[in-house]
User: Which sequence fits this backbone?
């Protein structure tokens, strides 16, 4: 589950990571109230889960209530890469001296947590990696041992952060790692991690992806659910307990297993088609699951055909096939369906 910037900053604050004071607003009047509370000058920032907000006009500096009202009016309702802005974050503007980059995520092949730190922040990390890969200092962290302050001190020194703020940066990185682990995140990223003109280090941005598998441990995550997605297809799938990601094509995809589902998307693309979604039904392809999957696919007006790709390992293909038949008796499907059934009891299926 990806968080909006303002939610990520609120999450950071729970772990002692310094962020700019501010508030979220869904109307120009609320934006003015948030600005008054944060203190002028402020920055009005569109809250969407895509990059490129600044280039699209979704980030504006304001020094008065009239300027805040005008900025919020212009930003609210605008579309940034097809994402409609429904809320803005209004925060006190920071005087920036230096910009860094910091993040933690999981290095699956090596079974470690991966920290990335760079003295070149404020631009996309992919651009830094392509143009100056040596500017990114990577740290492999044993999940059992974790990250201690002494290791963080060596890390910031290796990354050549400014000497005057290395102790602050090391402490903040330890808090960020604690947020990543104790907060059950798949990714935490600060870009930029800034040094202000008066020498304070804090997070000017926040990108946080929470691990949905840990949701049972975090009832407080329910507050994020209402704003989790603007895609009605994804909301519909989530209500039915399905792993679904909406795409822009016209071929509906149903597969069992994330790897097979991704491979199916690739094959459809190679054949000249375009996938309308990623949908993994997992191992339990019974009638209820199949009916829910077909219902979600069928609700997408762009879908003109449906490809069901099932491989039965532990799952029996004849059970899957019966589930599909039962589902078709319950859900009226307008689009033609292509089935590929392989594995255990495939002939019976």
Assistant:
């Amino acid at each position: 589950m990806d968080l909006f910037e303002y939610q990520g900053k609120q999450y950071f604050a729970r772990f002692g990571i310094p962020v700019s004071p501010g508030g979220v607003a869904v109307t120009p009047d609320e934006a003015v109230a948030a600005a008054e509370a944060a203190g002028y000058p402020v920055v009005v920032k569109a809250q969407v889960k895509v990059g490129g907000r600044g280039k699209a006009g979704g980030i504006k500096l304001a020094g008065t209530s009239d300027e805040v009202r005008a900025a919020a009016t212009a930003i609210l309702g605008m579309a940034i890469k097809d994402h409609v802005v429904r809320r803005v974050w209004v925060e006190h503007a920071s005087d920036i001296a230096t910009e860094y980059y910091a993040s933690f995520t999981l290095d699956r092949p090596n079974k470690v947590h991966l920290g990335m730190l760079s003295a070149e922040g404020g631009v996309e990390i992919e651009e830094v990696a392509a143009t100056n890969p040596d500017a990114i200092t990577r740290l492999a962290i044993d999940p059992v041992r974790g990250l201690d302050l002494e290791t963080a001190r060596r890390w910031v020194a290796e990354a050549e952060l400014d000497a005057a703020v290395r102790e602050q940066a090391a402490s903040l990185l330890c808090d960020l790692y604690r947020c990543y682990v104790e907060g059950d995140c798949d990714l935490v990223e600060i870009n930029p991690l800034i040094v202000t003109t008066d020498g304070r280090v804090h997070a000017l941005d926040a990108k946080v992806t929470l691990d949905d598998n840990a949701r049972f441990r975090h009832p407080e995550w329910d507050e994020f659910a209402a704003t989790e997605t603007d895609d009605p297809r994804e909301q519909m799938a989530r209500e039915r307990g399905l792993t679904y990601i909406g795409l822009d094509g016209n071929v509906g995809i149903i597969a069992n297993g994330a790897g097979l589902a991704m491979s199916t998307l690739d094959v459809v693309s190679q054949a000249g088609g375009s996938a309308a979604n990623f949908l993994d039904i997992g191992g339990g392809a019974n009638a209820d699951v199949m009916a829910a999957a077909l219902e979600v696919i069928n609700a997408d007006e762009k879908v003109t055909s449906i490809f069901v790709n099932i491989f039965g390992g532990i799952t029996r293909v004849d059970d899957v096939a019966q589930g599909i038949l039962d589902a078709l008796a319950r859900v009226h499907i307008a689009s033609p369906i292509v089935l590929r059934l392989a594995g255990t009891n495939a002939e019976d299926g």
